[in-house]
């Protein structure tokens, strides 16, 4: 049986790429959520003053 090719989805590079993409996605989502929560809190505080 032939070894895993670079485009087979089972190579080490493909695994690293998937893990990296997932990690970046989680980090981006966490940062985005923190920013949105901060903005929402700021808007609520501003609305309470007005």
From TrEMBL:
Assigned keywords, A-Z: Membrane, Transmembrane, Transmembrane helix
Residue stretches spanning the membrane: 12-35
Superkingdom assignment: Eukaryota
Protein's name in the database: ATP synthase subunit e, mitochondrial
Lineage, highest ranks first: Eukaryota, Viridiplantae, Streptophyta, Embryophyta, Marchantiophyta
